[in-house]
C-alpha cells in the first residue's frame, strides 16, 4: 500500500459531483397512518419540528448561503451519520460517495441494488421497482487522485473483494485527508468521488428523479415515469 501512496498526486476539485439516493417522487404525509384526525396529525408534525436537528447553516453564507435542511441532510449528511461497510470503509466511519455523471451513479447504484439489496432478499429474479433522487453537490477540495494508478494496482477496482480498498480507506481516514477520486468499477470511463470530510461539500441541488424497474432479466431506468431513459440486461451490470 505504501507504494500506491508514493505514486499519488492531488487533484484540485472545484465542480459539481452527482449524488444518487433512494427517494420517492412525490412527497407523502408521514403521519396520516397514525390517525385520521387532522389535529392529531398536526400535533405529530409539530412535535417532529421541535425535536429534529436544526437546519444546516453555512459557515460562509456569502458563498454557500443557508440550505433547506432536508436537502442538506439527504444529499450530504446522511452517510456521515449512518455508517456502513462499503468499498473504502469497513463500517467504522462515515463516507460519502458521488460520481462525475448521472450515468455513472446509475450504473453504480443499479449494481448494488440488484446484486446487493435484492439478491440478499432473494428478489433479484422478481419484477421490482424503486424510486431515486439525484442531487448535484458542489465539491471544493484537494483530493488524492487514484485514476493514474489504477492500472498498476488492480485491487483498487476489484469487482467484489473490497479488502485492499478498505485498508486504503482506513489510512486516509486516520491521516485526515478529505477524500479521493477513483475510476468507477461499474462504468468505464466514469469516476467516483469518495469524501471523508463533509466540510468540502456544499450547495446540494435537485438534478433529476429516477425510477429503476427490474424484470425479465432487464433493468430499465426512467427519468419520466414509464419512459425508458436507459436499459440494459442484468448480466451486463
Q: Would you mind describing this structure in some detail?
A:
This protein is α+β, with helices and mostly antiparallel strands and 237 residues long. The protein has one domain (2-24, 55-236). Helix content is 30%, strand content 33%. It has helices spanning 2-7, 38-51, 61-64, 69-81, 102-121, 163-175, and strands spanning 9-22, 85-86, 89-90, 96-99, 128-145, 179-183, 191-195, 201-215, 218-224, 227-233. The strands form 2 sheets. Strands 1, 4, 5, 6, 7, 8, 9 and 10 form an 8-stranded mixed β-sheet that branches. A two-stranded antiparallel sheet has the order 2-3. A hairpin with a 7-residue loop joins strand 6 (179-183) and strand 7. The radius of gyration is 19 Å and the shape is globular. The two termini are 29 Å apart. The model is unreliable at 27-31, 51-58 and 60-67 (pLDDT under 50).
What layout of secondary structure does this protein have?
Elements: H1 2-7, E1 9-22, H2 38-51, H3 61-64, H4 69-81, E2 85-86, E3 89-90, E4 96-99, H5 102-121, E5 128-145, H6 163-175, E6 179-183, E7 191-195, E8 201-215, E9 218-224, E10 227-233
Parallel strand pairs: 5-6
Antiparallel strand pairs: 1-5, 2-3, 4-7, 5-8, 6-7, 8-9, 9-10
Amino acid at each position: 500500500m505504501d507504494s500506491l501512496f508514493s505514486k499519488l498526486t492531488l487533484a484540485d476539485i472545484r465542480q459539481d459531483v452527482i449524488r444518487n439516493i433512494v427517494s420517492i417522487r412525490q412527497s407523502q404525509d408521514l403521519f396520516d397512518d397514525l390517525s385520521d384526525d387532522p389535529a392529531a396529525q398536526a400535533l405529530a408534525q409539530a412535535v417532529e419540528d421541535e425535536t429534529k436537528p436544526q437546519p444546516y447553516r453555512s459557515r460562509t453564507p456569502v458563498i454557500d448561503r443557508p440550505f433547506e435542511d432536508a436537502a442538506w441532510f439527504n444529499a450530504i449528511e446522511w452517510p456521515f451519520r449512518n455508517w456502513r461497510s462499503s468499498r473504502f470503509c469497513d463500517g467504522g466511519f462515515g463516507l460519502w460517495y458521488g460520481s462525475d455523471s448521472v450515468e455513472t451513479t446509475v450504473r453504480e447504484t443499479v449494481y448494488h441494488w440488484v446484486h446487493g439489496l435484492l439478491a440478499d432478499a432473494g428478489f433479484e429474479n422478481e419484477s421490482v421497482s424503486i424510486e431515486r433522487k439525484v442531487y448535484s453537490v458542489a465539491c471544493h477540495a484537494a483530493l488524492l487522485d487514484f485514476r493514474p494508478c489504477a492500472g498498476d494496482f488492480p485491487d483498487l477496482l476489484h469487482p467484489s473483494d473490497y479488502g485492499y480498498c478498505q485498508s486504503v480507506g482506513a489510512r486516509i481516514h486516520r491521516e485526515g485527508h478529505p477524500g479521493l477520486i477513483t475510476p468507477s468499477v461499474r462504468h468505464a470511463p466514469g469516476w467516483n468521488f469518495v469524501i471523508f470530510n463533509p466540510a468540502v461539500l456544499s450547495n446540494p441541488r435537485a438534478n433529476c428523479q429516477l425510477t429503476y424497474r427490474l424484470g425479465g432479466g432487464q433493468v430499465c431506468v426512467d427519468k419520466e415515469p414509464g419512459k425508458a431513459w436507459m436499459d440494459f440486461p442484468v448480466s451486463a451490470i
